[in-house]
Amino acid sequence: MMENIRPRFNFGNKAEVVKLRKRKSKLHNKEDKCAPSNGVLGAHLALFCVAFRLANCFLVQSSFVPDEYWQSLEVSHNMVFTYPLGTNFTYGYLTWEWKAGIRGYSYPLFFACIYKILHLINYDSVYLLIWLPRVIQALLAAFADVKFYLLIRTMESPDVAKWTFFCHLCSWFTWYCCTRTLTNTMETTLTTLALLYFPLPGSKTHSSKKYLSLVALAVIVRPTALIVWLPLLMYHFWQEENKLRLITHHCIPIGVLTVGISTLIDCLFYDKWTLVQLNFLKFNILHGVAEFYGSHPWHWYFTQGFAVVIGPHLPFFLHGLGKTVIFIRCLCLMAATGISLANLKNWRRAAAYGLLVANLVPALYTGLVHQRGTLDVMSHLQKLCDTNSLSAQPQPDVLFLMPCHSTPFYSHIHCPLRMRFLECPPDLGEEGYVDEAENFFDDPLQWLRISFPHKSSMPTHLVLFDVLEKEILTFLEGNKFIRTAVIFHTHVPEGRVGGSIFIYERH
Predict the structure, then answer these.
(1) CA distance 192 to 392
(2) Statement: the pTM of the whole predicted model exceeds 0.70
C-alpha cells in the first residue's frame, strides 16, 4: 500500500532534497550549549587555568632578575610604609632610576594598593606582602591563558587550538616568568589580551578601541613594548579602510587619556612635574645609560635569547612555521608549535609526552633550585626583626657585600632593620666616575678598612657570596666576624656570584 502512495508525492522526475527548518526549542539547542565556546566549558577552562597558575606561583621560589623587586615591590613598599630611619633608609628602597624620574609609578601603584589594603585591615605580614602580589599576578596570567586559547580558536581549528594551548602551558620559560612581579610579565599579559582584539586574519573578536587601550597600558607599564607593537600598528593602519577615523576616534583619544592619567600619577608621587616617557627616552636612548648595565649584540635575541626562551619547542616551531600560510598567525609563537603537533598524526602522542618532559625538568629546576639563595637569605635576616633583637644594643645593622640589587630589600623584611647595599648608579657624565660596587670589588679589603676605621662604625652582619670570602678573610677574623649561616644559591656560579651565600655576625 505504501508503495502506491509514495509516488503520488513526487511532483517531477527529479528528486528534491527537503530541508528541515532548524527548531529554536531549548531541547534542540542543548547540544549548542555544550560547545567549546559555551560558558560551561569556559568556566571549566578558567578554573583549570587558575589552579594551574596558582601551583605555578608556589613552585617558583627562585630569583630571576633584580627588576622583579626593584621596579615593583620595593617601590610599592616605599609608597605605603615608612620607618623613622632617615634618608639613607629611604634611598634603600629606590634605585637611581626613580631618583632620575625615568620610571613610572603606575605599575608599582598597583601593588601599593594591595599593600595599603593589607595595612588597613592589619594583615600586612611579611608573608602576605611577598606572596599576595605573586598570587594576583598568577591570576592575571590565568586570565591571559584563557584569552590566549580563545584567540587561537578564532583563527584556527579546535584541534590546532587545543594543541597550541597545550604547548603554551608546557613552556618552561612561561612557567618560570609569568607569576613574577616583573613589568615584562604584565606587558606580556596585556599584549596577549590586546592580540585577542587585534584585527588578525580570521579574527572574530576585533575591536580597535579595546586593543589600542590595552597596548597603551602595556607601553605605560613598559615603554619598550612599543617595539613589539609598532609593526602591528603599522599593519593595522595599512589594512584599515577608514584611516582618518582610526587616528581621530581611537589612537589620539586613547593615547592622550592614557599618557595624561599616567603623568598625573607620576607627578603626584614625584611631587613635581615629571614626564617619565620623555626622561626614559633621554636617558636610555640619547645618553645610552642602559648600556651601563650591560648590552648584547643586535643578533643576540635571534641567535641566543629566542632559542633559550622557546627551548624544547624550537623543532616544533620550525616545523609548524612551514605548515602556516600566513606568517602573522605565528605572532603568538606557540601557534606554530600547535600547528606542528596537530599535523603529527602518528607521532603526536609521543611528541607531546616528549615536549612535556623536556620542559618539566628545566621548569622545576629553575623554579625550585637555581638562584634561590638571594630569597632564602632574606628569610634568615627577617628573623632579626624580632622585638628583642631590635631593642638590643647594638641594634642589628646589615651590609650586603654583593653585586648591587642582588637581593630584594625591605619588601621581604618589613621592619625597621638597618640595612645597606653597595650602590651602582650609572655614570651621568662625571669624569673618572666609578660606582661604589665597582670600587669595592676592585680592592675589597682596602675598601672595608677605609669605610670602617673603627669597630663602633662596623655593621653587625655581613652578607656575601662565597667567592668573596678568601679576599676579606683577614678583615673577618680581625674583627671577630663568625659565619652563622650558609645558604645554597646555584650550581652554576659565575664571576662575582657564587654558589652559596654566607652570613657573618660580629661577636
Answers:
(1) 52
(2) yes
- Residues 317, 337: contact at Cβ < 8 Å? yes
Side chain identity at residue 215, one-letter code = V
Degrees to nearest 5, angle at CA 471 with 468 and 476: 90
Is residue 502 within 8 Å of residue 491, measured between CB atoms? Answer: no
Distance of CA 256 to the CA centre of its chain: 26
CA dist 21 and 10 (Å) reads 21
User: Cα–Cα distance between 105 and 366 in angstroms, integer?
Assistant: 30
Both ends of the chain: CA-CA distance in Å? 113
Q: At 502, is the secondary structure helix, strand, or coil? A: strand
Amino acid at the residue 106: S
Question: Domain extents for the chain?
Answer: 39-369, 372-506
Q: Exposed (0-12), middle (13-18) or buried (19+): which is 97, by Cβ within 10 Å?
A: buried
SS3 (DSSP) at 360: helix
CB-CB contact of 338 with 165 (8 Å)? yes
CB atoms closer than 10 angstroms to residue 441: 17
Residues 6+ apart with CB under 8 A from 217: 190, 258
Over the chain (507 residues), what is each successive 10-residue block's mean pLDDT?
Answer: 40 42 45 51 90 97 94 91 50 60 86 94 95 97 94 88 94 95 94 91 83 95 90 91 92 94 89 83 70 68 80 88 56 83 89 95 97 97 80 85 94 92 78 83 94 89 97 95 97 96 95
d(CA 229, CA 174): 20
